[in-house]
Amino acid sequence: MERKQSNAFITARKGFCYLTIKSFGRNHEMMRIRNYNIEAEEKRHMRRLYPEVAFDWKKITQQLAEKREACRRYRSRRRSPHGTSHPSGGEPFYGVYEPSTRTVYVNDVPSSAAGVGALLDAILQIDRDLDAAPSLSEPMRGRVKPSLALVKNNRPKRR
């Protein structure tokens, strides 16, 4: 029984496109494609490496254009409209610093490492500013350890 000639096609996985053939019921990735195009030299190389595979470059180019458009739509959809990491319609992220206990109350936990870093930088800056200028309205007390609390329903939840 003569074996049918395989056709090459495009697959995308984890943000990358691959030139692929189906072999024994599984996909075999022949080449990773960069910038959604295949150079002429790469095409010649693939034809030499895989003489038993039928390459329809017109169809492959069309599949790459479809993948590029799908990735472009996906990336533009993921961006939030106001430059924040919160979905639209949700309440904004805010925090309050209580200098007497040196506690920061926040309404939500930042969703990214950059958000956590920005929050910690703001806390440290406030703390440095308060250390530099002591308040005359409060009596001097011993040093209090700074803490962070999550506020849910207007009640602080200690961590």
Task: Catalogue the unreliable spans.
Answer: none
Can you give the helix content as a percent range?
Answer: 25-40%
Percent of residues in β-strands: 25-35%
State the shape.
rod-shaped
Question: The biggest beta sheet, please?
Answer: 4 strands, mixed
In the sheet with the most strands, the strands line up as 3-2-1-4
**What's the total count of β strands?**
8
> Looking at the chains present, what oligomeric state does this protein adopt?
single chain
Radius of gyration equals 29 Å
What is the string of SSEs from the N terminus onward?
Answer: EEEHEHEEHEE
Number of domains: 2
- Average pLDDT confidence is 76
In whole angstroms, the N-to-C terminal distance is 70 Å
Number of separate helices: 3
Please identify the structural class as seen in this structure: alpha/beta
Could you characterize what this model shows?
The chain is α/β, with parallel strands linked by helices and about 160 residues long. The protein has 2 domains: about 5-80, no CATH class; about 95-155, no CATH class. It has helices at about 40-50, 55-80, 115-130; strands at about 5-15, 15-25, 25-35, 55, 95-100, 105, 145-150, 155. The strands form 2 sheets. It has a 4-stranded mixed sheet with strand order 3-2-1-4. It has a 4-stranded mixed sheet with strand order 5-6-7-8, with no helix packed on it. The protein is rod-shaped, with a radius of gyration of 29 Å.
